[in-house]
Design a protein that fits this description.
single chain, 223 residues
Amino acid sequence: MRASPVAREAVLQYFAHVIALNVRRAGMQIDPDTVASDSFMLNLQSVLLRFCEPFMDANFSKIDRIDPLYYAHSKRIPLDDETRIKATAEEANQWASQNPPTEPTNFISDVFFLTIAMAHYGYLKTIDTYNNTHKQMDEIKRHLQMLQGDGSWMGTPIQARVEAAIKLVKVEEGKVRMQQLAFEAGLMDPELLFRSISFMNYLSVWLIRQADPRKKHPNPMIE
């Protein structure tokens, strides 16, 4: 990052390229073979959060360096497939063609918005995937309970078949539990949690600052 402007730009482009290749991670149904793994995205999230630390001081002294018109001034992060509150895709494309980027973005804005995007496609999606494993586990337990029933199948001709089915379900239960433990090891890492909460707090303050007519929040705090 500090070797030269060319090297720094290459690093930023790398993060942007990863985000562009993983926009499908935000969808409901994902083919895991077409996107990066949760661990890969969490690792990059951790790196970006470290890049944010120098400008996230307690006094918010550098918060005005973040460009509120970043998406108009930069095409680093693709928004083509994002849902818009009040514009059709055609209207958005027309606006973009009539308003090409005119100002170079600064490093703080680049890192800030790349971190948000990485959280959207990585960290937050990984939390969602982890939560889904609990639904899987509930279904597995219900299936296991149904197979075991009252045990009236024991000593009957179907005992071997039922026991084989129970064994398969228990193997699947073990796999899901291993997934949960792996997710917990990554998501509950104390340093990652601390940095993530710090960043989300900073992001919240920045968003409220945009709504503040005086653009001064949190000094003084908006009412």
